[in-house]
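Go through the following before class.
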Amino acid sequence: QVRTVLEQAMPDFRVDPGRPARVLVFKDAKGMEAFTQAEKTKKLGYRPSGLVQLGRERAYVAYRIDGGPEDPYQAAGLTLAMLLGDLNFHWAPDWLKVGMFSFYGSVRVRAGRARIGDFPRWLPAEARYRQPLRIEDLVRMKSDDPMLTDGQKQFFYYGECQALVHYLIFHPSREHPKPLAEVVRELSAGAGPEEALRRVVGDLRAFQRTFQGYIRGYQTSGLELPAPPQVAAESIPIRGLSPGEVAALQGDFLIYA
């Protein structure tokens, strides 16, 4: 279902990795960390809901479903969007990659409709107590910057990147009817992150004030799409894996880690 929604929302993007993909779903963070041996995630101060491993022969998508009733869609959407981001925006600055997979990964499916790209609901309240990054720093910074080693700072950075993509999608002007596409075009032509954004939004200091007001407000824009056909759970064959099969699967996964 999530993959079908992303295909509808991203018709111009590549959605298949060009190699077999295995999706691993874990009941909780402890199980995912044990299988993936993701010790480094413990140093972040938070536990990511999913991860992507791209190998030469196959791709792995792993996510956990212990975040609440909506999280199975959100975790799957975010993790699959990370894969699509690697496929389509591997060349892009980190703010764009992070913002795009956060935007397109915010999938909700309910009552026959699907929503994608909703503004991060926690950001306005958080922004009232934190000083947002300077826009120049936001677009120049890498997601593994030493300033972001604290998990909460990195989480806030992800929210700001998503908010910037959200703004560029939902706030066209007469001069710039498709702001995000224009920024992408400028980057593709060789402009640096700051210059590409400046050519579309104008003076970055003035835009900083606009953007700060934007992330401190509650934005309601999002994309609504028809929900994909549901697959009956009982139609999916399920069987347990033997310890040997689990070990073989884990070994194959760790080859690409």
